[in-house]
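Problem 12. The chain below contains 125 residues. Write out its predicted structure in token notation.
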Amino acid sequence: MAWYDRYRASQGHPRREDSERAYRRPVKDQTRVERHAAMVALVADRGGWLTSSPGALDATMDCLPGSTLPTELANAGYEVEEIGEGQRILPHAITESVVIDDGAPPITVTHSGIVRVLRYSFPLP
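Solution.
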């Protein structure tokens, strides 16, 4: 088990294998909070953000434009609907090349910045 997986487990997050199960329809004995936790892991592993609270009937999700996550969820049987757009602050949104000395190769520096995201909603069974 990688250090990141151990850390996630110590914080109460589901295992990565559990996130793959979120694509399938839920098992009857899972609670709504357990299904939400599996969906949080799935969406996070694919670069999105699940913004709804645990136990909510409808999940809301933010994705960067061009993300395939909404299509993947729709293909898995979820009724994904775009509900608008918003903004998020990301730690590496801005990348620039900086030259320190003449003749030295430029270095790449990243900064935090605001990016546009698309918002989606879908019912959690």
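Discussion. The two ends are 31 Å apart (CA to CA). Students who got a different answer should revisit the alignment rule from Section 12.3.
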